[in-house]
Design a protein that fits this description.
The chain is of the alpha+beta class and about 130 residues long. The protein contains three helices and six strands. A four-stranded antiparallel beta sheet has the order 4-5-3-6. It has a two-stranded antiparallel ribbon with strand order 1-2.
Amino acid sequence: MPRASPSSNGSTAVPHPGPRPRLTTLGRVFILELTYTAPLDRIDALLSEHVAWLERGYADGAFLASGRKNPRDGGVIIATGTRSAVEARAAADPFALNGVCEYRIVEFVATATAPALEGYRERLPV
């Protein structure tokens, strides 16, 4: 908490802590970690369907970023929305439908963001 300090006129002022992040208006943020459960040839056979599914997620505003893990044993998607919507979207991934990956979904409170993601910033409960 900021400390009070005397001003030049003898009054005590508490420094302003700066603007507080606003509550999100764009949905919660999730990390979706995919782990492949099948050989890469099976993954590659479904890759174009998976990419089309990703493109729909971006068009719908549900996905913020995605890519392969290194080493290539899965991938990561940063998504937004409600938990139930994110879980339903993950279940509709062609990789999941064909049993070639498992999903781990982690919801988190984005208390700090890059300026471009400010709409996802949240305040912690006090």
